[in-house]
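Fold this sequence, please.
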Amino acid sequence: MCIPGTEPDVCSDCIRTTSDGLIKNCPNQTEGYSWSDDRTLCMVRYSNRSFFSSVDLEPQRSVFSSADLRGNLTEFNRIWEGFMLRMITDASSERKHYTADVTSWTTFQRIYSLMQCTSDISTGDCEACLRENVRQFQTCCGGKQGGVVRRPSCFFRWDLYPFVGAFDDISSAPPPQPTASPSDKKDDESLSTGIIVAIVVGVVVSVLIILGCVICWRRRSYRALELETQSLQFDFKTVEAATSKFSKNNMLGRGGFGEVYKGTLPNGTEIAVKRLSKTSGQGDQEFKNEVVLVARLQHRNLVRLLGFCLEGEEKILVYEFVPNKSLDYFLFDRTKRNRLDWRTRCKIIGGIARGILYLHQDSRLTIIHRDLKASNILLDADMNPKISDFGMARIFGMDQTRANTGRIVGTYGYISPEYAMHGQFSMKSDVYSLGILVLEIISGKMNSNFHQTDGTAVNMVTHAWKLWKDGSPLELVDPTIGESYESNEVTRCIHIALLCVQEDPADRPAMSTIILMLTSNTITLPVPRQPGFLFQSRLDLDTAAEDLESGQYTDKSIPNSVNDASVTELDPR
């Protein structure tokens, strides 16, 4: 297909050239696709299976300009994001699944954008696909002067100049900046001293007013932060009384970062009190600031932080109380796991995924949890999951998506290979942990403690991969579930889990894609590749565990990167 309005001969030439390119570049392949955007935009796709009326998000390809944006990036991002939202709405609201438009950035600069979906998918799938394209560009290529994201079902491009003839009837090129004529220069040179003085005075007064406003704003911000901190702070005596002086009878659990107690406030509100270890090296102000940030997170699948207590050596966190303990309390107990039927397990998987997506992309912060595991998933009275324990979470800047560390934290069996071996973590590290969780929820068995006596598989990932390759993935299902499940639904969840635990972070899907995979049966899932931490013997597992505990996998020489493991290429202008 071509974009609407393309001349027939131009469209035919584009399709012919694109088809020839597919045959040349993808020889002996059973399927392939290409969006070509040279003279015009056209799309060609072929396959040995039917892909009509289904949205495919993989494989995707991102290309961006090598040039960086210049100017007021805050203002640009505000304009760009609003423009993208309007474009997505326009493209997905019409049956033609296409839009091209222009918006102004500065007086002399415009933003040109084009979006198109294949005409066979629904408007809802079109919108989801385009949103994923825009989100992908923001993740991989924010701050660049233009870029392209291609997927089998949709295309997105934007630039600072018109392209592929799509904007001829929409807007003319930006007008050139006028140059002064000789007579104008003569008039300029004859400006009186009084006018110059007036201009200078006006500029100085304006600058002073702006500085005064900035100082006032900063004072108000600090005051607001101080008031917010005070509203979250609990008195130590109040917390001590709520927990009956941290009675052992009220202890809910103990971890590496401290002990957790159940408490009841004077107004009857039940709370969970986490008393941090006194050996914590975190400073008081740093502790306060982080508490204020985490307390702002509001999502139904996150445990809510109600406040804190900071007195002397005591550092205490106060959370909402969640009555049904943690997921591992039910999942790994032979009698209690009967309460987890397939519908409940599905609900738990979806809730965990939505909570992680909120942390990664939808909150005002970018947070990587780094310790996602069954014991950190709490269950409320209706068995809805709530992610807890942000003691190891890493808060990122707005444009940061990956970091390195020389200190590996987390729980063996859940941490990703690149984090365990190189100290490199990103959003895809949490995706790996989610994959392990999904396999555990489906099987009712713990990844790190799973092994078979014949020595062919020694962890959950290895066992699941072997069953998948053998064509018998349903053998992974927990027998206590019985027959009350749809085999296709369970197989799809196992498929998604294997995509999450692939060895290369670039092969793992983003959280937004995982949500689409879980909620839409029309999305075709890519074929999973070999998982990370694939062991063939018990000795391999024991050796890896010993190396991890001794820190031998830490490698500080890996360079930092701001690319969230996406496929990107430079496109020099």
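Residues 172-191, 396-408, 536-573 have pLDDT under 50 and may be disordered. The chain has three domains: 48-159, 236-320, 327-561.
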